[in-house]
Amino acid sequence: MNKHTKTFILCVGSLILGSGAVQADKLADVLARGKLIVGTGSTNPPWHFRDEAGNLAGFDVDVAKIVAKGLFDDAEKVEFVIQASDARIPNVVTDKVDITCQFMTVTAARAQQVAFTLPYYREGVGFLLTKDAKHKTYDELKAAGAAVTVSVLQNVYAEEMVHQALPEAKVDQYESVDLMYQALNSGRADAAATDMSSLKWFMKQNPDKYLDAGYGWNPQTYSCAIKKGDADWLNFVNIALREALSGVEFATYSASFEKWFGEAPPAPKIGFPAELR
Amino acid sequence: MTYTFNFNVIWANLDQLLSGLALGLALAFFSILIGAAIGLAAAFAATGGSRFLRGAASVYVTAIRNTPLLVIVLIAYFALPELGIRMGKLESFVASLAIYAGAYLTEVFRASLIGIPAGLIDAGLSIGLTRFQVARLVRFPIMLRNALPALGSTFISLFKDTSIAAAIAIPELTFQARRINVDTFRVVEAWMAASILYLGTCLVIAAGLRRLERHFPKF
Amino acid sequence: MGEFFAEIWTARAQLAEGLLATIEISAVAIFTGSALGLFTGIGLVYGWRPLRWLLRFYVDVVRGTPVLVLILATFYILAVFGVQFTAVGSGMFALSLFCGGHLGEIVRGALQTIPATQIDAGKSVGLRMPQILLLVLLPQALRQILPVWINTAVEIVKASTLLSIIGVGELLLKTQEIIGRNFLTLEFYTFAGLLYFLVNFSIERFGRIVERRLALA
C-alpha cells in the first residue's frame, strides 16, 4: 500500500473518530512533534520550486529551514505542505501548517487574519535588459520616452505599474514569464519589467547575458505568516528570523541570499544594535 | 468544533457571485455554439463516405475525450502563444471548452444521424433532392431534434466545466467563491452559496429543456 | 527538441512520481466511489424513505455542482470543522464523493429497468431480499452499467488534475513544477496531455475487452 492510500485511510479514520485536540501552545506542540510543518509553493523559482533532483529549494524554503534549525538544531526537520497562493491564509488559520513561508506580501488587510513575522525580503520591480541593449540604464530608458517598449507579465495593474517608472513607454503584456523573456531576447521589447528577485535569479542563471537597469520601485514586504493569538510562537519565530538577518545565523541567511539573488545582503553593523537606534 | 454562520459576507458579495454566474453561463453558451459547429462537421465526417475524414474525426474524438480539460485549457492559454497563437483569457478558454465540447457533441450528433431511418433519406432523394439538400432539409432537422436532450445535458456539463476557468483567473463563480473564501474566511458560506447557485442554475436549465423537448415532438 | 528530451530525462523521477500519484489517487477514488455508488444506487431504489431522501439530496448536490467546487469546498470546509485532512486525503475524499454520486444515479437507473416481477419470482422460490439483490438484480444491473462505469473511471482520472490546484503532487502539478524550472511550457504540457491520454485510452480499451467478454458470457 502506498503512502497516499495510507494517508487517505488515516484521514477517513480521523473523520469517523472525530478529530484532533484544539491547539493551545504551538511552540510546545511543534517541539513535541519533532518537526515543523511549513506551507509553501513548488512552482516559483527562486522562491520555492523543485530542483532537478525533485527536492524543494529556494529562498522561502531556506527561511523555513532557518526556523527549523532554531527549533531542533536541525534544518532538515521540516515537512513542507505544497499549497496554492490563495491557500496561504486558510491553511495557517485552520492549522494545516504551523507557518507559511511563500513570498507573502504583507498588507494591513491580511494582518487582520494572520500574524506576520518579521520581514525577510523586500520585493520590488526592476528592468531587465540584454547586455547589448540600446539603452543600458534607467536614465537612458527614461530619456528615450515613447521609443521604448517594455514587456511585462499580464496583470490588471501591469501598465500602470510600468508607467510609474517610465510614463511614456509602450507596454506589451505577456501571458507567462518565459514569453516575457522571449520578447526581450528577440528584441521585440527593449526591457522586461519583472520582480527584482526573478530578475536577479534570471541573471544568475544566465551569466553575462543580461543587465539590471539599476532602478527598483513598487516595494512590497515579504514575511512568513502564522495563526493569530499565539504570542509565544510568534515571538519564537521572530527571534529565529531576526538572528538570521542580523545575528548568529547571519552566515546562513547571507549564503542563501547570495545563492538565489546573486549578491550578498549588507552585513549587520557591529557595535550598537541598529534596530534599537 | 463550533462554527458560527455569518451570511452577511455573501449578501455583500452577491453581485460579484451573480456576475460570476452570468460569466460562466456566457462562457458555456459560446462554447456550445462553437462546439456544436465543430461537432456537426465532425459528425458528418464520421458518418460520411471518405475514409480519411472518418479516421480524422475518430482521432479527434478519442484524443480529446481522453485528455483532461484543465490540461487543454493550460496549453491553450500558456503554451499556444509560443507558437504565435495569442488569445485573451476569455477567448482561449472558450476555444478550449469548444474543442472539448466538440468531441462529445460529435458522438451525440453521430448517434442522432445514425438513428434516422434510411427510408427517409431515400424518400428525399426520390423526390429529386440532391444529397446536400437531403442533408440540409431532412437529416439535419431530424438529427437536431434527436440530439436535443443530449445537447441540453452537454450544456449543463459545460456550464459546470466553466468552473475550471478559475484556474486561469477568469472571474467566474468558482473564482469569486474562492476569493470570498480567502478574503473573509467565511469558508462554509462561500462554498454553500456557490453550490446553491450552480445547483439552482442546473435545475432551472434542466427544467427549461424539458419544456423545450415537449414543445418539439420527437420524430 | 534535444533540450526537451534531456529535460525529460532529468525530470524522469518527478514525472514518474506524478504519474504514479495520479494513478493511485484515481484508483482509490474509483474504488471507494464505486462502493459508495453501489450503496447509493441500491438505497435510492429499495431504501427506507428517509434514507432515500438523504441519498437523493447527496446525488443531486454532487451532480449539480462542478467537481472543482466539490474539491475546494471539501478541502477548506473539513479544515474549519477541525478535520485535519492532508491535501491528498481531502482530494481523494472529494473525488470519491463525486464518483459515488454519479455512479449512484447510474446504478439506480439500471436497477429500475429490471422488471419488478423478477423480485416476485425470487421471493416465490424462497429467496430473501438481500439474496435477490445479490443473485438476481445486481448481476444484470452491473452488466448494463459497465460501459458507463468505465467512462466514470476516465472522468475521475481527468478530474484528478484539479487536485493540482490544492497542492497535490500529481502529474499536472509535477509538470508545472518542471515548467517552473525550465520554461518548456508547450513541450511539457503536451507531454502531460499525452500521458493522461495513454492512461485513459488504456482504461477505455480495457473496458471494451471486458465488455466483449461479458457480452459473450
UniProtKB/TrEMBL annotation, chain A:
GO annotation terms (biological process): amino acid transport
Keyword Transcription regulation belongs to the record: no
Family annotation (InterPro entries): Bact_solute-bind_prot3, Solute-binding_3/MltF_N
Position of the signal peptide: 1-24
Entries under CDD domains matching the protein: PBP2_Mlr3796_like
GO cellular component, one term: extracellular region
UniProtKB keywords: Signal, Transport
Domain of life: Bacteria
Ranges of residues in domain Solute-binding protein family 3/N-terminal: 35-264
Family the UniProt entry places it in: Belongs to the bacterial solute-binding protein 3 family.
Protein's recorded name: Polar amino acid transport system substrate-binding protein
Organism for this UniProt entry: Neomesorhizobium albiziae
Classification of source organism: Bacteria, Pseudomonadati, Pseudomonadota, Alphaproteobacteria, Hyphomicrobiales
Automatic annotation (TrEMBL), chain B:
GO molecular function, one term: transmembrane transporter activity
SUPFAM superfamilies: MetI-like
Stored Pfam families: BPD_transp_1
Transmembrane residue ranges: 20-45, 57-80, 108-129, 150-170, 190-209
Cellular compartment(s): Cell inner membrane; Cell membrane
PANTHER family reported in the protein's UniProt record: GLUTAMINE TRANSPORT SYSTEM PERMEASE PROTEIN GLNP, MEMBRANE COMPONENT OF AMINO ACID ABC TRANSPORTER
Family: Belongs to the binding-protein-dependent transport system permease family. HisMQ subfamily.
UniProt-listed GO biological process terms: amino acid transport
Organism of origin: Neomesorhizobium albiziae
Job description of the protein: Part of the binding-protein-dependent transport system for glutamine; probably responsible for the translocation of the substrate across the membrane.
Classification via Gene3D superfamilies: MetI-like
Keywords: Amino-acid transport, Cell membrane, Membrane, Transmembrane, Transmembrane helix, Transport
Record's GO cellular component terms: ATP-binding cassette (ABC) transporter complex
Domain ABC transmembrane type-1: 21-209
Protein name per its UniProtKB record: Polar amino acid transport system permease protein
Recorded topology in the membrane: Multi-pass membrane protein
TrEMBL record, chain C:
Protein name (database record): Amino acid ABC transporter membrane protein 2, PAAT family
Record GO terms (molecular function): transmembrane transporter activity
Predominant subcellular localization, coarse grouping: membrane
PANTHER family in alphabetical order: GLUTAMINE TRANSPORT SYSTEM PERMEASE PROTEIN GLNP, MEMBRANE COMPONENT OF AMINO ACID ABC TRANSPORTER
Annotated ranges, domain ABC transmembrane type-1: 19-207
Transmembrane domains' residue ranges: 25-46, 67-87, 185-203
Signal sequence bounds: none
InterPro entries documented for this protein: AA_ABC_transptr_permease_3TM, ArtM/GltK/GlnP/TcyL/YhdX-like, MetI-like, MetI-like_sf
Superkingdom to which the source organism belongs: Bacteria
Lineage: Bacteria, Pseudomonadati, Pseudomonadota, Alphaproteobacteria, Hyphomicrobiales
Cellular component terms (Gene Ontology): ATP-binding cassette (ABC) transporter complex
Family the entry assigns: Belongs to the binding-protein-dependent transport system permease family. HisMQ subfamily.
Annotated GO biological process: amino acid transport
Alphabetic keyword roster: Amino-acid transport, Cell membrane, Membrane, Transmembrane, Transmembrane helix, Transport
Places the protein is found: Cell inner membrane; Cell membrane
Cross-referenced Pfam families: BPD_transp_1 (PF00528)
Function per UniProt: Part of the binding-protein-dependent transport system for glutamine; probably responsible for the translocation of the substrate across the membrane.
Membrane topology designation: Multi-pass membrane protein
